[in-house]
Amino acid sequence: MKKLILIFFIGTCCTCLNLKAQEVSQLDSLINVSLLSYIDNLKGLCNKGALSEDYLKKIYISVDNYPRNFSFCKQLQDMDLKYISLTNISHQKKIKKKKGYNVIFLEIALTDSCLKIIYSDRNVSTHQKNNIKIGLSNWGIFIYKYSCEKQKWLLIEAEYGGV
Questions:
Q1: Domain boundaries, the chain
Q2: CB 144 within 8 A of CB 115
């Protein structure tokens, strides 16, 4: 009887872990797809002349709000992107006074059964010692809704804008 209970318990734990891994991989996939789309939009703005040609070369990805154990997809890893954490003091030293860097920030919100993934690139600079100045530039909002029939999140709206 004890062996049967132990086998049932281990099976239940394995099933729960497998379901949790699928949830995490879906969220990782949505974040990666949204970031790729956002970067493609920025490339389009560069091609149209709305942003300077070297804009993307000066951009950093803020890693502060990503889920634990998140990994960027192969396409993003192959791009010449730089990463920064504004909560990490050693990274803050990279931000030179008044020069500024363009940093892409991530926000994730779950509202009204919709998952919103918001990317915005902002100019970040140090104004005075230990005082970071952030100005909004461009943004992209990706809204996903979960489909019970397909058992996955579906993109229902993508909106891009800028100041």
A1: 2-162
A2: yes
> Can you tell me the distance from the alpha carbon of 26 to that of 155, in angstroms, rounded to the nearest whole number?
12
What distance in Å separates the CA atoms of residue 91 and residue 11, rounded to the nearest whole number?
Answer: 44
Helices (H), 49-148: 74-78, 89-92
Whole-model pTM?
0.75
Q: Which amino acid is at 22?
A: Q
- CA–CA gap between residue 81 and residue 52 (Å, rounded): 17
H-assigned helices in 58-110:
74-78, 89-92
Q: Which residue has the tokens 């919709």?
A: 114
In the three-class reduction of DSSP (H, G, I as helix; E, B as strand; rest coil), residue 64 is classed as coil
CB-based contact 117:65 (threshold 8 Å): no
How many Å separate Cα 26 from the centre of its chain? 13
Tokens in use for 90? 């050693």
| Spatial separation of the C-alpha atoms in residues 83 and 160, rounded to whole Å | 22
How far is it, in rounded angstroms, from Cα 36 to Cα 17?
Answer: 28
Residues in the chain predicted with pLDDT less than 70, given as ranges, are 1-24, 88-100, 127-132, 163
